[in-house]
Design goal:
Elements (H helix, E strand, L loop, with lengths): L14 H9 L5 H13 L17 E2 L5 E4 L8 H4 L7 H12 L20 E4 L13 H18 L5 E5 L1 H13 L16 E5 L5 E7 L4 H4 L6 H15 L21
Parallel strand pairs: 2-3, 2-4, 4-6
Antiparallel strand pairs: 1-3, 5-6
Helix pairs in contact: 1-5, 4-8, 5-6
GO molecular function: 4 iron, 4 sulfur cluster binding; DNA-deoxyinosine glycosylase activity; metal ion binding; uracil DNA N-glycosylase activity
Keywords: 4Fe-4S, DNA damage, DNA repair, Hydrolase, Iron, Iron-sulfur, Metal-binding
InterPro entries: UDG_Type-4/5, UdgB-like, Uracil-DNA_glycosylase-like, Uracil-DNA_glycosylase-like_sf
Length: 262
């Protein structure tokens, strides 16, 4: 699947085919150079590991009712492990919350073969390569958009909620949904933590988009995003998606810490 290109995603018949196309993509020269350079030089803490160093496919339930939309893989997280949000501190926060709210089989994600299973949720991103300074360009987002678009088409029979982590993902998702025939209001709804937009497709389908601050260290270390705030959004997603309470014993949700800030 070497040298795949994003437009070929439209011909993918399954999510597994989309994932394979993603992993073989070389469409953005700046991102290709960066991801491969990081994989060669490595961080000292991981100097004995072999980095993935390729675009990182989405991860999770192929019949998901909830998609969690991130930004892009981390240079020493997903770009190292080969799995979205795995092996970095942002992922530590996200997977712990997914576990507390009944979506993840375990609270930590360290490697592709660690046994992590997501039920009812799938982690997707508008950009699949680690970008310099965690900042993809609008052109790179546009180039990668066909992958996200095809995933959403293949998930259409089941997906009911999109939890969007941060403003970059919010804009990317709404752009893709507009192109796919969803009736997105004009002016486009603004991102904010706790924002909610209920959309209707031209064919009558519905999708609820929920905003959440990104699980970046900049947000979690400063308290801008607390575990309780993240849990609240994910539990709201469960409710809207019709998933009910998490299975098994009641989850140990993070303690409340005051109102969310937008």
């Amino acid at each position: 699947m070497d040298h795949a290109d994003p437009p070929s995603a439209a011909r993918a018949r399954t999510l597994a085919e989309v994932d394979a196309l993603v992993a073989g993509c070389f469409a953005c020269p700046r991102l290709v150079a960066w991801r491969e350079d990081v994989a060669r030089t490595r961080r000292a803490a991981f100097r004995d590991e072999e980095y993935w160093g390729r675009p990182v496919p989405s991860f999770g339930d192929e019949s998901a009712r909830v998609v969690v939309v991130g930004l892009a893989p981390a240079a020493h997280g997903g770009n190292r492990t080969g799995r979205m949000f795995t092996g970095d501190r942002s992922g530590d926060v996200l997977f712990a919350a997914l576990h507390r709210t009944g979506f993840a089989s375990q609270p930590t994600a360290t490697a592709r073969d660690d046994g992590m299973v997501l039920t009812g949720a799938r982690l997707v991103a508008p950009v699949h390569c680690a970008p310099p300074d965690n900042k993809p360009t609008p052109a790179e987002r546009h180039t990668c958009a066909p992958y996200l678009g095809r995933e959403l088409e293949l998930l259409a029979p089941t997906v009911r909620v999109a939890v969007v982590l941060g403003g970059f993902g919010w804009q990317a998702l709404l752009s893709t949904l507009t192109e796919q025939g969803w009736l997105v209001p004009r002016p486009r709804p603004r991102f904010g933590h706790g924002a909610r937009v209920d959309l209707v497709h031209a064919d009558g389908r519905t999708l609820t988009v929920l905003g959440c601050f990104h699980v970046s260290q900049q947000n979690t270390f400063t308290g801008r995003l607390t575990p309780a705030m993240l849990d609240d959004v994910l539990m709201a997603a469960r409710e809207v998606a019709g998933l009910g309470a998490p299975p098994g014993p009641p989850p140990a949700l993070a303690p409340r810490s005051g109102p969310a800030r937008t």
